[in-house]
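Design job #97: recover the sequence.
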């Protein structure tokens, strides 16, 4: 993303007139089913608004017998993050960033994955929450926040829907043109949580023959415009891996011919070297071998 985009979001999050609109709400969605000690489950942070928004600054606090595992922003309406979602002292989680296009309606800000470590009551509140109107002025809005709580019961570990923990999956992968940077494109994705929580979302790609190293990514992930194959994988907290490839064959339409000729040339050179070093059988007249 260009520096001016990040600067705009910073300005929106730091100084703007404030108003209150009751039609804008932020809340958490408690997991369905019974939560027992040892369970791993997601908690979604949701936003509902009747006004177009393009920037968000939310602090979520949780209390109770929970161990925070990680945050998953795969389905977030936020596309440009001011900073990575992270846990702060006092069990606060910061959610700050902006949308490339104005957002209106119901959507997810973030999914937080937790493990229940003891019986008791888990509580979620919003000590600070502001969103910003896409009105050209960055007008700050204080949304109505809705606290939530649920009970953690003694028992054997289960996922939020009561089923044994399993492997999640990749819902979709898509490549789009980056509207702010012509030298790259964006990989958008959606990850289905398994109930074990997502440990990492990673990607590697290649613009030629060789792969780049694996790297941790957020949604959407920037890749060079000339990347023609992308390897995408999700690892849950139990070590299960879901992997998928996505291709951009259009990259190879013109340079692909040159690329193919180079590969053929390399193979011919390698064959000649092998034939000459082989000496014996490869270099002899068949009649001489009788």
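Job complete. Output follows.
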């Amino acid at each position: 993303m260009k520096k001016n985009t990040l600067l705009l979001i910073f300005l929106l999050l730091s100084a703007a007139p404030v108003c209150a609109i009751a039609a804008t709400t932020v809340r958490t969605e408690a997991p369905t089913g019974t939560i027992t000690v040892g369970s791993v489950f997601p908690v979604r942070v949701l936003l509902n608004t009747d006004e177009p928004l393009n920037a968000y600054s939310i602090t979520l606090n949780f209390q109770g017998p929970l161990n925070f595992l990680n945050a998953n922003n795969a389905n977030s309406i936020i596309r440009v993050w001011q900073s990575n979602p992270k846990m702060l002292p006092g069990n606060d989680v910061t959610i700050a960033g902006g949308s490339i296009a104005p957002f209106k309606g119901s959507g997810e800000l973030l999914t937080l994955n937790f493990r229940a470590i003891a019986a008791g009551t888990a509580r979620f509140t919003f000590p600070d929450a502001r969103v910003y109107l896409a009105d050209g002025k960055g007008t700050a809005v204080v949304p109505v926040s809705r606290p939530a709580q649920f009970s953690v019961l003694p028992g054997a570990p289960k996922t939020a829907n009561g089923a044994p923990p399993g492997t999640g999956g990749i819902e979709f992968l898509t490549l789009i043109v980056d509207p702010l940077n012509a030298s790259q494109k964006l990989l958008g994705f959606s990850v289905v949580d398994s109930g074990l929580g997502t440990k990492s979302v990673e990607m590697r790609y290649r613009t030629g023959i060789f792969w780049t190293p694996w790297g941790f990514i957020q949604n959407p992930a920037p890749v060079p415009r000339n990347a023609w194959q992308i390897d995408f994988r999700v690892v849950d907290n139990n070590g299960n891996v879901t992997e998928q490839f996505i291709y951009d064959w259009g990259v190879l339409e013109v340079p692909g011919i040159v690329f193919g000729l180079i590969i053929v040339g390399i193979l011919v050179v390698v064959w000649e070297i092998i034939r000459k070093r082989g000496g014996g059988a490869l270099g002899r007249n068949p009649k001489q071998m009788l």
